[in-house]
Amino acid sequence: MRICVYCASSAKVDRAYFEAAEKLADEFAKNNVEVVYGGGAVGLMGVLADTMLKHGGNIIGILPKFMVEVEWEHKGVNNMIMTDTMHERKAKFMEDVDALVALPGGSGTLEELLEAITLKRLGQFTKPIVILNTKSYYEPLLRMFDKAVEENFMNKVHLEMWKVVDKPEDVLDAVKNSKPWDKGMINFAAVK
Ligand code: AMP
Which residues contact 106 (CB under 8 A, 6 or more apart)? Predict the structure, then answer.
């Protein structure tokens, strides 16, 4: 299985977020999950990559050339794919993966997650999306989606595009138990 992980570049966040990223990488390495991630060396990205490498797990970084120019890439990750643009990078994150997992993060992580959700709503991306809600970080966003449904900006079925878990140990089960999705979901994309 290959899973793309979206997560923070910030190194200033609470320990609990680092511990969750580390535990997730433990789980993935133990279960032979190959990880695709943003290629960074710092923050939750750094811990994720360091822990995968420590266990001899497979990890692939994808980052745009301009980030390599400022030396943001993780030097220990041999499998590093460089893209010309951020758009190309985001598209590559979603290619040939079996699932996406979003850990807490800032604007970059939120954008990546929301693009994936938008494409899934349109049937253009059909794989499971799991949100790791460490320290209830994602509550405001989840409330926002509830509000979007309440106010008829989205359909109730759209809330089934992702699964939310509190603990990294529950991520793989959530991937396995995700609601099946296919290109035909375009027919349910519009609010009727
Ligand atoms: P954020 O959740 O806002 O920290 O965004 C994570 C995303 O920020 C990554 O996917 C990158 O696009 C970008 N990013 C910001 N800082 C770095 C960094 N030092 N190394 C690699 N990527 C970074």
Answer: 8, 9, 10
In three-state secondary structure terms, 63 is strand
Q: Which of 9, 62, 69, 82 to mutate to test the pocket of ligand 1 (most atoms within 8 A of CB)?
A: 9
Pocket test for ligand 1, best of 4, 37, 45 (most atoms within 8 A of CB): 45
Ligand 1 atom 7: the closest Cα is on which residue? 108
CATH number reported for the structural domain that contains residue 78 in this entry: 3.40.50.450
Secondary-structure percent of the chain, ordered helix, strand, coil, rounded to 5: 50, 20, 35
Sheet holding 59-64, edge to edge: 79-83, 59-64, 34-37, 2-6, 99-102, 129-132, 162-165
The domain containing residue 172 runs over which residues?
A: 2-188
State the pairing for strand pair 59-64/162-165.
unpaired
Domain count for the chain, please give it: 1
pLDDT digits (tens, 9 = 90+) for 60-119: 999 999 999 999 999 999 999 999 999 999 999 999 999 999 999 999 999 999 999 999
Strands 79-83 and 2-6, by their bridges, are: unpaired
